[in-house]
Please model this.
Amino acid sequence: MENKMRMFKRYKSNLPIDVRIDDVAVHEKDYLNDISLGGLSFKSKVPIQKNKIVEIIIPLTYPIFHSLGRVVWSRKEEDYYIIGLKFVIPKNEITVEAVGEICDIDEYKNEVYRKEGRILSSEDAAVEWLKAYIKEFKE
Model:
């Protein structure tokens, strides 16, 4: 097997995402597995064909992250699929901001646990983080 170096560092996350093909939701709710400046992988209840172009929406970011990606791999795990995709337009300003924000949300989640002992889901951490920092974004 050929060993390929990744061009961009991947960051783990399990924020909810919307995945659409031809403006139709693939599934009611899917979740990120990881994200980088070049693409992402996500957990899906349904398989998606390689080379298919999909629209990705991450609603718990500000502004809401929208991007197109091409499916580059898919593998079955337990009762779901992990789908890997490459952004059609990688490493643009919006992608850089969204990846940074997703990392900030994960850091917030860990900080809340360390300081307060509260265990937050990624979704709850995102909602709290957005409420706390949304004013900074709007200024």
